[in-house]
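To whoever is covering the structure queue this week,

Two jobs came back overnight. Logging them here so there's a record in the thread.

Job A:
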Amino acid sequence: MAKAKEAKIKKTAVKTYHNYIGGEWVKSSSGEWFDNVNPADTTDIVGRFPRSNEDDVNRAVAAAKGAAKKWRLTPAPKRAELLFTLGEILRSNKDEFTRQMTREMGKVLKEAGGDVQEAIDCTYYTAGEGRRLHGFTTPAEMPNKFAMCVRQPVGICGLITPFNFPMAIPSWKLIPALVCGNTVVIKSGEDVPLSTINLVKACEKAGIPKGVVNVVNGFGEAGAALVGHKDVRLISFTGSTTTGAMIAKQCGRENKIVSLEMGGKNAIIVMDDADIDNAVEGSLWGAFGTSGQRCTASSRLVVHKKIYKKFCAKLVEKVKTLRVGNGLDPKTEVGPVIHEDAMQKILGYIHIGEKIDKATLACGGNRLTKGEYAKGWFIEPTVFTDVKPGMRIAQEEIFGPVTCVIPFATLDEAIDIVNGVKYGLSSAIYTQDVNNAFHAMQELYTGICYVNSATIGAEVHLPFGGTKGTGNGHREAGTQVLDIFSEWKSLYIDYSGKLQKAQIDAVEI
């Protein structure tokens, strides 16, 4: 009896959250729930969330449709004022949102704080676009005729977000969609629903009207229903290449607009004239920040043969000192990976690297299970050396705390190695030679390129995205994201008082 009572107390102590549909916090029509678990301690349940189904998605889309006209007709500067207020709310709650993010996702507190800050920066920056949203005027071909173009909202947008940036990535999609006059339905990342809820609660507090922002929690069933809904005009997806390809096919069949941000296999080139210590620090941050769970992670280090041994020795020495642990501990430098499936996939790649690719396992490679690690998904930061460009660990996205060091002899060889994968998101070069830097910037076929820095660290006022298998040509952030969430309308005003046939009625000079 005592044990049963204790179990009941523990169960009721878990906080329950709901979907946000039409301005109301509601349960899922499925009646089912799922637990949001701390990956550093799986006995710690962060919250219980509704497992949404197609009915919930239909309700959310109907709410977005009902709010669409009024929101579209709200002047863009007024929409932007609400978004600026949203930024103020996020800023005032940054510390709380940071801790909650670390608890549900695992990334260390400093990184979680940076994630929330990126959402704040995105909101402030995009709010400024409410007084721009520029079109342009242009001379018409005919006399007494005026020509210009303006932006118009797309309609209802479905936003599907991943686990690794629980507030930054939803904000990258949500805020530009709203400033352009769209209404949205967000399918939150099932591993990190609380951060999305925090963002949406801030929207509610900022006064964004009912139905403009809706969120459904759950798994693939909810995402599939959102992608397939006839009233959803646009899908913006960040996640795996496999899922993205499936979404692209369906959206193509149904003539939906689709924006995809998918995988990466990013590389840092380290030239023989590089500041080695700086390059090692950048490689540590690029490879093991967010436990390597970034689409921009530096999972390949392409190092000049002249300094290869020295670089590897310094890198391995530093990696062995990295403190792995619960992200809530300020001393922790590398947190857990997101869940058991991810951990097993990463360990599988480590096995491939060592046993099949026959690369040298220079350090790491093990799951940590003792003491403070017993209840979480922890993997040692891992470095492979003597790696060849064609090995699987050098070609496939691992998405974990694993990097491989590849030697090269010439800059052009290094560039070929970097470009020789199916992805094209981010690249970097460490060098003191300005000619080499500019040559690399020109020839590296990636959407992002850094000089004397790691492959991670986007800024919200520049376009973010990649080439090849990383995406489908669209960009997030910057003003370029407005081209995803708005469509162009060309306007012609003929005040001549007569019919003028462009390209037919020649103007005499």
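Job B:
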Amino acid sequence: MLRTIDKYVFREAAVPFLLSLAILTLTALLSKVVKLIELVLTHGAGARFVFWFILSALPSFLVYTIPVSFLIGVLIAFTRLSSDSEITAMKASGISLFKLLRPVLALAVIASVSTLAFTLYLFPWGSLNLKRLMYEAAKSRLVSGIEEKTFYDRFKGVTLYVDHISPRTGEMEGVFISQTGGGEEGASGASSVFFADRGEFFPSTEDFSVYLKLRDGNIHRRADDAYHIVDFSSYTLELGFAGAAPPNEAEKSNRELYTGEMIKRIEEIKARGENPAPQVVDLHKRFALPASVFVFAFLGVPLGVQKVRSARFTGFSIALGVVLAYYAASTALEGLGNNGALNPVLSVWGSDIIFGLAGLYIFRMAAKDDPTGLLKGLMEGRFNPLSRRRRR
């Protein structure tokens, strides 16, 4: 009988969990729609780009929506079981709340492992891949952004002017380039001016640059109080995008680092005598988020055991309140950890510890049928606005 009930409770929690996960994730993706439309219109991004853009953006949402959806699923399941008096019937049959927790913990393991996979592997991959996609889109539609008889400054240290662009081949005529920094051959701080009859763009082996091949022109360069003029029949420039940086470990943001790279960065910061608190916070957060699923398991079951009729609405409203309180506490504690006012490890795990202890306490009270305080009010429906309206 217990095995049958385990499957029944697991299914009751899994269905609203998956439904909530889909709704919350799609809602979060809407924040990227404006950017996606802009890329499609300005850079001509195709279906392949849209697919990889969405796939790369998903991990940044799923690391949060999986724990939240799990809590919603558990609360909706147990508020429905309670409102239909199924919890009462199970207790009368000798099935305790501890035994009903087993299928919830099984679902929690699945949700936690999934969140852990996203925080450790897919989240860094998605963040870095999004950056690559943005610049790849800019590279693929570079010529369309260049207008005739207009100065173009989207390259690092380079201003480009083109007199005419062939609409059929994309070849440019009457090319003028002003480059600061001297380029490959000039000295540091030197400036160069290029004049060429024709020019054409070619893909670069680097992710954040493009090749511009010039033909039949000359270079004017001034450096160290000397002025040089060099004629050429063919010359290739590698142009980097303004604001772009090669994705090496030293210049990656914390969200783009895998766990091993993050640990290495923390050690490097410590070796320089600096405080690595923000990096420590980001590292431990990747483990604290998956652990929050188990915290929500011990909170969701007793909070879901209520005597209310509108089970789905009540479960969602309670989940919203718990999530807001949890993430408000997490944000406040992490802020103290980043500023050095609190130990960074404690600042990350503090919310899990606080809400975990609270969950264990109210679960124990609910299992003993001895609810107190807020839990008692919730179980009697006194804190439910619908219940108060019905009493009036």
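Note for Job B: The CA atoms of residues 348 and 375 lie 27 Å apart.

Please reply-all if you pick these up so we don't duplicate work.
Q.
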